[in-house]
Amino acid sequence: MLHPSQFQVNEAWIAFRLNDALIHTELDGDFNCLALMDAASCYILGNALVSANEAHPTQMEVRRLLKSGRAREQAFPKTLFVPSELSVNNLVLEAERNRIAVVRVSEHQLQPFIGEAQEGYRERFGGGARSEA
What we know:
By secondary structure, this protein is α/β, with parallel strands linked by helices. It has a single domain (4-125), classed as 2-Layer Sandwich (Nucleotidyltransferase, domain 5). It has helices at 59-73, 89-97, 107-125; strands at 12-17, 23-25, 29-38, 44-51, 79-83, 101-105. Strands 1, 2, 3, 4, 5 and 6 form a six-stranded mixed β-sheet that branches. Strand 2 (23-25) and strand 3 form a beta hairpin. The longest helix has 19 residues, at 107-125.
């Protein structure tokens, strides 16, 4: 299993879905929150609200997300971990375009990194069983 102690700051980032249940808005519909985290520090570098009606985040959304991480760390990481269950084709393509190696792993393997952030979100905003991304 992967663990934060295996990494240096900004060596690897993790993209993951922060919310369990959809985020409902009256005006714009339902959303998921895609987060970007540094693997060593478990610091959330940025997030993007992605329409639940779309199969994948848009190219603009993923560029903005990666830009927020780069602004914080002043460089891109070598590696981006992405849960194999998460549909983020545009993020994968944009990361590869920026020479970031993308590694797909099960979300279970990422729990030592993302579990606390997801639990904190769940406690603050609620949510039930995880729905499809």
